[in-house]
Amino acid sequence: MSNQVILISVYTRPVDIDAYPAGLANAVHLAYQRLGEERQPLNRNYGVLFPKGYVSDEDTIVPLGVVRPSIFAMKDGSIGILGHLVYESGEAAPRPEGDCFLWKTKDLIRFEEIGPVNGNDYPASDTLAMDEAIAETTIVYWSPIRQKKVILPEEIAVKCPSDLEHVFAEVVYSDGSRAIKTVRWDVGALDFSAPGVQEIGGIIRRQAFHFPLAKGYGDPVIFPWEGKWHFLGTNDNLDDIGLYIRESDTVAGLFAPGVEEHLILPFDPARGFEQTFWAPEWHLIGGEAYILFAVSGHTWGPQCHMMRLKKGGSVIRAEDWENPVPVERMDGSPLTTDGITLDMTFIRAESGAYVTWSYRRHIGTPKDTGSMLYIAAIDEKEPWRLTSEPVLLTRPLYGWENVAGTINNEGPHALVMDGKVYLAYSGGSANAYTYALGLMTANGADDLTRLSSWEKSISPILSFYSVKGEYGPGHHSFYRNEWGEWMLAYHGETGLHEHLRCDGIRRVHFRADGTPYLQMSAEEDLPEAARSVRLRVRVR
Questions:
Q1: What is the pTM of this model?
Q2: Residues 506-522: pLDDT tens digits?
Q3: Is the per-residue pLDDT at 1 higher than 60?
Q4: Which of 527, 536, 538 is nearest to 152 (CA)?
Q5: Cα four-point dihedral sign 45, 48, 49, 50
Q6: Which strands form 303-308's sheet, in the order they lie side by side?
């Protein structure tokens, strides 16, 4: 490859209140241009850098955006990106420290937030010429990841059909990442009575679920238990009243027409369960099965609860679940007395056991704090009682999190792998196209109640620009399928202005650096034409 110059440019997009509001448009977008070619947007033309808003004296969030961005080389060898601060209205929003927001980066992939600065102290150019080697790495990172080729052994030796069960295909992707796939080999085509070289065909297995899978359900959770697959979710079709569970031999069967829904927690004023049966999650905690969820009594105000499965009980029978209990603080007092709590999830890491949840005060009023994520340690023997004080983990300060007044950090669910905790969460509007997933990352050996243990991504890792035809993807959960692949379940809408939450599932891919990538469609993962493979087999 010749060492050419590639132009990297920064820009914002026009505000479109119906399809790309100020919280998204007034962010730094990236594009590139090779010599003699047209300029191409990166990150699917969605924002990459969002300035942080700030918290007012009333504990409310003041959203900020940027306009007129510039990019330039800095004296220390890094790259600077600058944008003039504005409110959602577009009016200039200078801060005491300066009128612009500054980021620094060495690779246009990872960014350091410097914060407000005086814009007059920096150059003003929307284009930077970069060395091709550095620019190409940036281009690959912010471009869709797609399957490039399939690698198989040149030849294998077998004695019997079972020898083929562990012959896999290695799929290579455009960013250099790889995934191991199982193959359904046509074993019947082999003649094991005839030693020598033969050829066999196979189909690479790929779980591809159409969207939507189920209409009118939010916050989906899928899990295996006692040889069956199960589905939990918020039932919008029944006004979010009651907890229901589905059971099937396969994940696809959970969404088959006529599948039975088992009511495991009904409307029950005597027990204080009357409304907002929200976001049920299945977790094994201390070796026992729990459902974590939020519920309200007669007066609206959802609070986090836990419900434990009785010893030897069936998950689909209401009488086999113990009475739900509210989650308590260390001293036995309520989790909160001045707001709502919801969307609790459980994290087991090397450093211990934790719960994370969303908390909000003054919802729908001028003093609305927005929903924010808190975390605390627990003892798995009594997971409903915290063993540490709650710690504020994140507030929705970025434009994509507080877009158009939604002010959300909610729906956390973690993927723990290779010593890392990947805590994805939702921002934007829970039943509209702006819903998106953000990511916080920590080392599993670190104390997760320390804010310094976490790194928060500036831009979302899944949005309505990620997969064509899916709007507002969010409030997710992770699970492993029968082949050991990580899968993502989520809800979204079928149109830009639809508000019916529907469920979807796709495979979680992992970039070459090991971080999760959630934007891969089934066709990008493995096109139908690439699934058919052939293999030389030496029968012994």
A1: 0.97
A2: 999 999 999 999 999 99
A3: no
A4: 536
A5: positive
A6: 275-285, 288-296, 303-308, 325-326
